[in-house]
Structure formats: structure tokens, C-alpha cells
Amino acid sequence: MPDGKPAGVRCAQLGDDLRCRIFGRPERPACCAGLQPQQPMCGASRDDALAWLTRLETATAPSRDAR
Asked: What's the pLDDT at 62?
């Protein structure tokens, strides 16, 4: 996604198996490569991890005024 991925939109590089298709490759965005999951982020389930990511996307989304 050349212009970034909007919050709530599935990444174009996410496969049907929910794995990144470009993991470890140079074209993987720095924001993805720099994400270092820890237990508080992952929680006890996939739902916990997705809830964390949703909060992160919401907290870091540009304000409507900045658009």
C-alpha cells in the first residue's frame, strides 16, 4: 500500500493464513518491521491482539483537522 494502510483496513500483504507475505523482505514497511510484539500486546488470544492493534491505530490516527 504505497500511501499507507488506513486504520481498520486489512493489509494487502496479509495472506489467507494471516501471515505477512513480505515478512523479512526489504520491501516490508519500517513500521511493520519495527513492531516488536510483547505479551501485553498479544494478550491471551487473537482477539486480544486485534483489540490492542485497534486501540493503537485509533490512538495514532491523524486528526480530522490535519487532513
From this structure: 76
Q: Which residues contact 61 (CB under 8 A, 6 or more apart)?
A: 7
pLDDT digits (tens, 9 = 90+) for 20-64: 999 999 989 888 888 888 898 899 998 998 899 888 888 887 776
C-alpha cell at 19: 501471515
Q: What secondary structure does DSSP assign to 1-67, as a single string?
A: -TT---TTSPPTTB-TTS-BTTTTSTTS-HHHHT----HHHHTTSHHHHHHHHHHHHHHHSPPGGG-
Q: Give dist(CA 26, CA 54) in Å, integer.
A: 26
